[in-house]
Amino acid sequence: MTKSSVLIVDDEPDIRELLAMTLAKMDLQCVTAADVAEAKKCLREHTFFLCLADMNLPDGDGLELVEFIQQNNPDLPVAVITAYGNVDGAVNTLKAGAFDYVSKPINLDMLRDLVKTALQLANKKSFLTKTSTLKLIGKSPSIIDLNQKINKIARNQAPVFITGPSGCGKELVAHLIHEQGGRSDKPFIPINCGAIPADLMESEFFGHKKGSFTGALQDKKGLFQAAQGGTLFLDEVADLPLHMQVKLLRAIQEKAVKPIGESREIPVDVRILSASHKDLTDLIEEGKFRQDLFYRINVIELGVPSLADRISDIPLIAEHLLARLSKRNNVNQLKLTSDAMDALKRYDYPGNVRELENILERALTLSQGDHLDANDLGLPNSTSQKPQPQTKSTGVASVQLNDYLNSQEKQAIQSMLDKHKWNRTAAAKELGLTLRALRYRLKKLGLD
Q1: Do the domains at 145-303 and 312-382 have one common CATH topology?
Q2: pLDDT by residue (tens digit) across 337-364?
Q3: Architecture of the domain defined by 145-303
Q4: How far apart are the first and last CA of the chain?
Q5: Whole-angstrom Cα distance, residue 100 to residue 118?
Q6: Under a CB-based contact definition with an 8 Å cutoff, are residues 113 and 269 in contact?
Q7: Among 21, 273, 355, 393, which residue's Cβ finds the most Cβ atoms within 10 Å?
Q8: Which class is domain 398-444?
Q9: pLDDT 10s digits, 64-102
Q10: Count H helices, E strands: the chain?
């Protein structure tokens, strides 16, 4: 077998022949198997760059084959073939590690796109030598772990839901997933779902035909079609109104969109990445977000740490941001004094990396010297002032007091959550906290 070999697993001879003929026209060599046992034998004897497997096989199913390949050859992408309407089964295989899925009756154009994406991933040389100006700055354990997860997630097509507080870099993470994957030569289209007026959303997402409504003076492609072959990033997906959630769910399930005024659906091949700083499980409880849509977009969940969770990265991030801001403003790069760096490390950053960038940009604009001191940063609550020296006994007492206070806070929050059956919205209200403040405390106290 060559590096351009595909394993096709299906118990229907006509399907096997159709797939083999289609891929042969792409100069690909195919090996076919009729059941799970024969497929496992082929996998032991040959090397493939892609496996296409039917969900329903005489001696097992596609999920079993996905799990077998994940254990024995995790770098081999597996695309499952599902019966029409069996999207739930396909989502389960994506959760188990499948590369993608295609529904019967098979759309050959979509199949070719899927195979091309897998081929690009199989080209290890271009994949590994790909250069990028985008990167996550930091050497903390949480950032090292996040980079490893991004690299792994980039190698399949499953929808990813990116969580994290505002300003922590969720769009950057989405862009890295796109850039390190097989769609990197296609568009990356970010959408801020909260910034589009509700009455324009359907047209923006799916497009419209000329004359379909007042003001539709010409045909317009929607953002799904603009992202064809690439990645669609739905930022702040929690802000979508319910009627758009229904339409988005259908577009994701059917891999097709229907522009306003169009009589037929148009197939689209996009990878869906989404993000929100809000807790969607709370919104589901409140009836503001559809559980079935959450199930579709949250096949893989990826958390981005807050800046407060990686204080050790602040010096690297600050130097990187200062270099970029200095270049943008065409000024010499200023240096941070040790007092300024200490002040930055002590600040709690409710706005995360975005807030750190704003602080440095303001300081750079207003500075008059060749360095930035703590007072130049303009941090609130006097956090830029030097801490008073402490005796050893004071430090010990402080640690003991903090431990005691944290213990009391943890007990109070735990009791309130138990009372409300872990409905965080209700617990926060009774505690007199905002939901965001409660989430911060849950993470801080290890209760999240």
Answers
A1: no
A2: 999 999 999 998 989 999 999 999 988 8
A3: 3-Layer(aba) Sandwich (3.40)
A4: 49
A5: 10
A6: yes
A7: 273
A8: mainly alpha
A9: 899 899 888 888 899 998 876 666 777 888 888 888 888
A10: 19, 18
Q: Decide if 61 contacts 55 (C-beta within 8 A).
A: yes
Whole-number CA gyration radius for the chain: 26
Rounded to the nearest 10 degrees, the angle between the axes of helix 141-153 and helix 170-179 is 40
What's the CA gap between 248 and 274, in Å, rounded? 12
| CATH code reported for the domain at 5-126 | 3.40.50.2300
Tokens of 155: 């190698």
Do the beta carbons of residue 163 and residue 301 sit within 8 Å?
A: yes
Q: Where are the domains of the chain?
A: 5-126, 145-303, 312-382, 398-444
Other C-beta atoms closer than 10 Å to the C-beta of 143 total 21
**What does the DSSP 8-state code read for residue 214?**
T
HSE-up of 62 (CA within 13 Å, CB side)?
Answer: 33
CA-based diameter of the chain, in Å? 82
What is the CATH class of 312-382? mainly alpha
Q: Angle at the Cα of 99 (from 152 to 187), degrees rounded to 5?
A: 80
For residue 219, give the amino acid letter. D
